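Example protein
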Amino acid sequence: MAADSAFTLGRATPGTLVVSGALSFATAATALQMLDDALRPGDRSQLDLAGVRSCDSAGLACVLAVLAEASRRGHAVSLLHVPSGLRTLAQVSGVDALLA
């Protein structure tokens, strides 16, 4: 996998997970599992998406699934620095309100 299509997940400040790389069909399943595992303890309340270089519909579905699962568990997760491409894709798909 090329470096520009890789997905990485890191921790910044307490409570914040940093998402970097691509959220795409090629990375969405791995990203979903990594994010779900990282959020399972419930001590993370923010996803910083500033490092997301590309996102397609599978990446959008991944982000929405993470938010839905956190909500199901009674844990609020907010998004920081949502890239304009992801926001536009959500608007076109009619789900932009879910990213708020």
Notes: Residues 3-85 form a domain with the Transcription Regulator spoIIAA fold (CATH 3.30.750.24). The chain has three helices and four strands. The chain has a mean pLDDT of 90.
